[in-house]
Design brief:
Length: 117
């Protein structure tokens, strides 16, 4: 079992920045993929950014150039640096990981990000 603990959400004005963190713990050997999804009210959950072994980092078109995903393997932690935030970035952000050997998927509890003036 893998536990994911997210932090860093909150409210910010347009143009501001936030940094999300997701610390993983549990039966972990290695991660095949670590990343972030988001879900706005009335919309489907969508990929924001993901780091996948052996593949280029993947970003949603809407966040390219503004968001940066990174991971610290020693800490089993994935980060999402969000700059130049826009009201349309308002959503619940979910951490997502895929284990290397089993390809099992795990989700964090979600953290609210609100961008408003």
């Amino acid at each position: 079992q893998v536990q994911l603990v997210e932090s860093g959400g909150g409210s910010v004005q347009p143009g501001g920045s936030l940094r999300l963190s997701c610390a993983a713990s549990g039966n972990i050997f290695n991660f095949y993929e670590m990343g972030w999804y988001r879900q706005a009210p009335g919309k489907q959950r969508e990929l924001v950014a993901a780091i996948t072994n052996g593949q280029p980092t993947n970003y949603a078109d809407a966040v390219k150039g503004r968001f940066t995903v990174s991971r610290d393997n020693a800490k089993d932690t994935v980060y999402l640096q969000m700059n130049s935030l826009k009201p349309e970035d308002t959503a619940v952000y979910y951490c997502h990981v895929v284990l290397m050997w089993t390809r099992a998927n795990y989700w964090g509890q979600g953290t609210q990000v609100t961008v408003s003036s």
